[in-house]
Amino acid sequence: MALPPPPHVGPGEVSASFRRASTPPNIVSSDSAAHFLATGETTQGGFAAFRWDIGADEMSAAPHFHRTFSESFFVLSGAASLYDGKRWFDAEPGDFLHVPLGGVHAFRSVLGASVSLLILVVPGVPRETFFEGLADLIERRWNPSPHQLAAFYSLHDTFPVPT
């Protein structure tokens, strides 16, 4: 396997970024918190990484797909159910689900159990405003009409799949 041409051809540089585990989350809602670990902006569009901590109340993302990015989920702690488009898997720390472009997927927390997920998005499309909008929905700060909600999902490349 050949490597692609290197986009960086100069000498090594001091450009890494470090984020402590104790850094407060970027978004907090009643039973969840989102941490923007690496945004598409900070990775020059290469990827985006988010940690989503969900409390013991059941929370879910209904089956959906994305047209412009892949998404991967790694269970850091707790318990979740992950959907690969065909079946649900009970997931525990260390379990991983990769969803390629166009792949139907979903997830849900397990009632009574908290979960922390690492979510990797490739390429690094801006997902921050999507997570902010979800927090507004959860907290009932935004009560969109069905048309507004469909437009919100479409704007953020999230296409629900009827079940």
Question: Which keywords apply here?
Answer:
Cupin_2, Jelly Rolls, 163 residues, six-stranded antiparallel β-sheet, mainly beta, globular, five-stranded antiparallel β-sheet, 2 helices, single chain
Short description:
This protein is mainly β and 163 residues long. 13% of the residues lie in helices and 36% in strands.
Kindly, what is the distance between the CA atoms of the first and last residues, rounded to a whole number of angstroms? 40 Å
Helix content: 10-25%
Low-confidence stretches: none
The coarse silhouette is globular
Q: Can you tell me the CATH topology?
A: Jelly Rolls
CATH superfamily: Jelly Rolls
Task: Please give the domain count.
Answer: 1
CATH architecture: Sandwich
Please identify the top-level CATH class. Mainly Beta
Largest sheet: 6 strands, antiparallel
Number of strands: 11
Please indicate the percent range of residues in DSSP E strands (runs of 2 or more).
35-45%
Note the quaternary state here. Answer: single chain
Spatial sequence of strands, sheet with the most strands:
1-2-3-10-5-8
Question: Structural class, judged by helices and strands?
Answer: mainly beta
Radius of gyration: 17 Å
H and E order: EEEEEEEEEEHHE
Q: Calculate the mean pLDDT score and round it.
A: 93
Walk me through this protein's architecture.
This protein starts with 26 loop residues before the first strand and ends with a strand. It has one domain (27-160): Jelly Rolls (Sandwich), CATH 2.60.120. The protein has helices at residues 128-138, 146-155; strands spanning 27-29, 32-38, 48-54, 60-65, 70-78, 80-83, 88-91, 96-99, 105-109, 115-122, 159-160. The protein is mainly β. The strands form 2 sheets. A 6-stranded antiparallel β-sheet has the order 1-2-3-10-5-8, covered by helices on one side. The protein has a 5-stranded antiparallel β-sheet with strand order 7-6-9-4-11, covered by helices on one side. It contains 2 helices and 11 strands. It is globular and about 50 Å long. The longest helix is centred in the last third of the chain and has 11 residues, at 128-138.
